[in-house]
Amino acid sequence: MKRTDYLSWDEYFMGIALLSAGRSKDNNTQVGACIVSDENKILSVGYNGMPTGCNDDDMPWEREGAFLDTKYPYVCHAELNAILNRSTGSLKNARIYVSLFPCNECAKAIIQTGIKEVVYWDDKYADTDGVKASKLMFRLSGVAIRQYQPTGREIKLKV
Ligand SMILES: [Zn+2]
User: Separation of 66 CA from ligand 1 center, angstroms?
Assistant: First the structure.
């Protein structure tokens, strides 16, 4: 008889998004993303971080202060990194698992690559104009959004 307590697809892919977030150097926000095809094959992963070549130790991670002294002009979000990190193939009809609802900039990139579903964990910035803009664009573009339903399962890894 086969195992019955295997991971669901949603648990598996959201688990990978959450694991990827663990790579982020950001003290305040760690976000991970995992893009999968409509055949449940992983196409790409990403997390929020500085652009390639911009040394994590030399870049600012602050949230407040003069714009150029904050992380905001520099950090590449998890979704954008996942989109840009894909090695081959199209993202058409793919879905993206994200630990945090996409900002409006990432929403545009998601739409333009042909991703058709966003599965998100947290929506803590739902009241911000950025996320409202994301939701408007997703609706108009026919991108489905779905909140992940946590199962409470604990996944322990010893690495
Ligand atoms: Zn973003």
Answer: 20
